[in-house]
Design brief:
Strand content: 15-25%
Bound molecules: flavin-adenine dinucleotide
Structural class: alpha+beta
Radius of gyration: 21 Å
Largest sheet: 4 strands, mixed
Order of helices and strands: HHHHHHEEEEEEEEHEEHHHH
Strand order of the largest sheet: 1-4-5-8
CATH class of the largest domain: Mainly Alpha
CATH architecture of the largest domain: Up-down Bundle
CATH superfamily of the largest domain: Butyryl-CoA Dehydrogenase, subunit A, domain 3
Number of strands: 10
Distance between the termini: 36 Å
Number of helices: 11
Length: 384
Amino acid sequence: MNFGLSAEQSDIRALARDFTDREVTPHAAEWDRAEAVDRAIVKKLGAVGFLGLTIDEEYGGSGGDHVAYCLVTEELGRADSSVRGIVSVSLGLVAKSVAHWGTEEQKRAWLPRLTSGEAIGCFGLTEPGTGSDAGSLTTRAVRDGEAYVITGGKTFITNGTWADVVLLFARTGSTEEGHRGVSAFLVPADTPGLGRRAIHGKLGLRGQATAEIVLDGVRVPADAMLGPEGKGFSVAMSALAKGRMSVAAGCVGIAQACLEAAVGYAGQREQFGVPIAGHQLVQEMIADIAVDVATARLLTWQVADLIDRGQPFATESSVAKLHASEAAVRCANNALQVFGGYGYIDEYPVGKLLRDARVMTLYEGTSQIQKLLIGRSLTGVSAF
Ligand code: FAD
C-alpha cells in the first residue's frame, strides 16, 4: 500500500493550489455576497485543464487519473465550494457520463466544448415531488416519429441558468416500471419550450447558479438519448457513484480550509494573556478538525484509487461521502467556535465555510440515503 502521490499528482495539486490562490480565494467572499461567481472563471478552469480531468485527450480532455481529479477538487473546495460545484457537475456528472455512455457523435458534439469551458453542463434529476426517491420521477418523454417530446419540471439544478446542455432524466416507460422506465437525454438548453428560473435565498453556495427548469413540449431528436432506452437511472446512478467521491473531495477541501483558518487565528488571538492556541480546549477543537480532515481525505483517496484500479467503488464512495460531508459540517462548526464571536461575522471566512458545508449532507443523496445504500450493500436487504 502506497499513500504517496506520484510526481504528476503532486504537480497537479501544486498547480491547483496556485490557481485557486490566485483566481478563486481572493474573490470568494465578494462572489458570495454578490450571489454570483464571475462567469469568466469557467474559461479559466477550462484553460488550466481542470474541466477535462480523466477525459481522453482525443475529446479535448486533459487526462489524469481520479486521484488527480480529487486533488484538484479538494483545492477548489478549499477555495470556494461554489466554484468546486461547477466542476463537479459540468465535468463530474455531465462530461464523464457523456464519455462513459455517449455515442461517438455525442462525445464529439459535447466533450470538447465541456472540457474547454466553452459550454457548461447541468444534471437534471431532482423534481419538486421526487428528491431522494428519484426513480419515481414524473417528467415524461414521449416518442413522436424521430423525436421525443419532453414535458415536466426539475428543481435545485446546479449550473441550471448557466448551462448549455442539460443531462435530463425523463420517463419513457410507464409509472409502474419505476426507475426502469427512465431514460437520459442530452438536451441543449436553448431548445424551445425549456424555461429556467434562478433559485435565490440559499443558505450557502450563494455564488452558484441554481435553477428550476420547466419543460413544456421540449422536442429533441431521438439521438439525443444518452445510453439505452430505459437505462437512464443506471446513467444517473453511475454518475452519482463517482459524483459522491467528488463531493467528498470538496468536503475535504472545506475541512482543510477550516483547519488552516482555525490554526492561523488561534496563533494570533490572545485571551488571558496568551494566544488562544495555548488553551487546551482550543487545541482539542483543532485536533478534532485535524482528525476529520485526515479520515475524510483517506476515505476519498481510497475511492479514487479503486476507480483507477478498475475495482468496484460505489459503496466506498457512499462511505466517503457520508463521512466527509458530516465531517465538513463538524469542522466548520469547530472552526467557527475557535473564532469566537468573530466567526459569526462575514468579514472572517468560517461562517461561509459552515454555510457551504451544510448542503453536502443533503445533495447527491442525503446522509440517510447513503446509510441505506451502505446498509443494502452490507446486508443484501434493500430498506428503500
Ligand atoms: P427529500 O427526499 O424530501 O428528503 C427529506 C428528508 O427525508 C431527508 O432528511 C431525507 O434524508 C429523508 N428521507 C427521504 N427518504 C428517506 C428514506 N427512505 N429513509 C430515511 N430517510 C429518508 N439535484 C439534481 O438533480 N441536480 C443538481 O444539480 C442538484 N443540485 C442541488 C443543489 C443544491 C444547493 C441543493 C439544495 C440540492 C440540489 N439537488 C440537485 C437536489 C438534491 O439532490 C436533493 O435535494 C436531495 O436528493 C434530497 O431530496 P429532497 O430535497 O427532495 O429531500
